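Support case: user asked for a sample of complex input and structure output to validate their parser. Sending the pair below.
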Amino acid sequence: MSTDAPSTADLVISGGGRTAIASDELFSHAQELEKVAIESLSCARQLSGVDGILDAARLSAANAPASAFEAESAIASATATLDELEREASLVARLLRVSADAYGGAERFARDAMHDLAARVGYSVGFYLPIIALAVAPSAAIALGGVVLLASLRPGGLSGFIGTLGEWFRGNTRALTDPMNVALVKLGVSSADDFGAGLLHIPPGIVQALGDDGLGVLGTSTTAATAALVGQQFGIFAETPVKATRVSRETGAAPPQTLVDRIDRLPDTGENAHGEQILIDRIEVAGQPDRFEVYIAGTVDFTSVGEEAFDMTSNVYAVADLPAGSYRATQLAMEQAGITRHTPVVFTGHSQGGLIAATLAASGDYDVRGVVAIGAPTAHVDVPASIPMIAIEHTDDLVPALSGMRTDNAAILVERRAFAPGAELGDSPLPPHEKSAYRVTAALVDEAHDDQVREAIRSMSYRGEATVTTTSYLAERVP
Amino acid sequence: MTDPTLAGPLQLQRLALGQIAARVNFLASRVPALGSSGGRWAGPARDAYDDKLRELARLAHRSHDAVLTARDCVDRALVIVANDVH
C-alpha cells in the first residue's frame, strides 16, 4: 500500500474448510497465545516438581534456614501465577478464535443475503424485461440515435468514438479497481444466470433447485456457456484445435520453496523468445518419484480471433467449464513432458493460467499435490478438499470477480487490497491484477502466521538435493 | 544446626529454578511482542485486547519475579547450609 508498508496484518484469510474469516494477525495472535498457555502450564508443572523435592515437613526436620521456607513460598506463588497466566492466555486465544468464527458467520450471512437479493433482482429484471423493453424502447431508440449521431459527427466517426470510450476506461482505472465496484461485479456475475432464468420464465423454485445452492447446474459456468454459444453465432468465441510446441529445455533451476518462487517461475510471455505460456519443471530427488511443477501464464491476447491459445475465447470456455484452447494446450504440454495421471504434480497459474490450473486439478485426471491460483477467476471451480489450494486475490482486482462469488470453502483464500485509496496506480489498465502487485502479496503470504497457510506452502515445497529440468511450451491455435 | 543432607536437594532445586527462570523470562518477552505488532484492527475491541495483553504480560513478569525470588532464597539457604557444614 502507499501509505503503510505492506504487512501480513493486511491479509484476510478464509476457507481451507473452516468457518472463520480473519486477518492473519488475528490467527497468529491466537496461535501465539495458545503457545504461551502451553508453555505456562509446562513451567507450572516443572515448578510443582521442584516444589516436591523438599516439603515443609522435611525442611522443619532438617532445621532448614528461613530462606529455604521463603523459597517454598515463592515457588508456590510462581506456580499459582503461571496457572493464572495459562488460564487467561487460553481464554483470550479462545475468544480470538470465536470472534474470527463470528466474523466469518456474519460475513457469510451478509454474502448469502446479498447473493439472494441480487439473484431475485436479476430474475425479476429478466422476467419483466420484455415489458420494460416495450416501455423504454422509444426513449432508448432516441437516446441511441443521438449517441450515434454525435459519434458520427466526431472526427474519426464511430471508430473514433469507440477509441474515446477505450481511453475513458484507461483513464478511469480508479473506478475499475474500486473494491466496492469489484464486489458489485462479483454479485452481478453470480446473478447473471438468474437473469437468464427470469427471461425464460423458469419458475423460481426450479431455478433455486438447479442453482449454486441446489444441484449446481445453473451458475457462472452456465452464463459463460451461454455467452460462448451466442458469441459463436457472431463469429467470436469459436474454439479451434490447438497444439503445444516445445521451445526450450534447460537444467539448473532451483525447486520452489515459497509462493514468491512460484510467481517468479511463471512464464513472462512478453519477455520470452517465442511467447511461451507454459513452463514445466521436472524435479528429480534421489529415492523419490519424479515430481512436476506446471506454471501457466495469464491471458496473452484480449481478442477472440487469431492463433493465440491464451485468448478471450479460452477465458470464456474455461469459465464455462468447457474444454478451452489453453486448457487443451496445457494438457498436450503436460503429456509431452511425461506427466501421467499417476505423476505427482503442482499447478501454479496467474489470471487465466490460475483458472486452467484449478480446472486441471478439479478434473480428477492427475495426481495433484497442490494448486496456487494468483488473481484468477476460480470461484466457481470445485477443487477437491484433499488437494491443498491457495487462491490469492486482491479485493481491488476485477479479474477474480469475473467468476462470481466463491461457492466452495475448501481452497484457502487469501485476500488483500493491493492499492490504498488514492494511491498512484500507474499506467496499467488493471494495476492490482499485475503479477508484480501479486508478488508483493505473495511475499506477505509466505510470512503469514496462519497454520493452514504455512502447512499448505510447506506441503508444496521441496527439501534436499534436487535436479530440475525446465521445459517451456508455446500453445497455439490451429485454425 | 542445619542437616547437611539438605544441600543436595537444595542444589537440585537451584538448578531447576535457573532453567525455569529462563523459560518464564522468554514467556514474559513473548506476550508484549503481540501488542507491539502494529495491528490494523482498531477501536474499542483493540483497546480492550491490548489491556488484556498488558495484564498477561504483568502475570508473566510476576511469575518470573517469583521464580527469581525462589532461586535467590535457595541460594541463600545453600550458603547457610554450607557454612553450617564447615
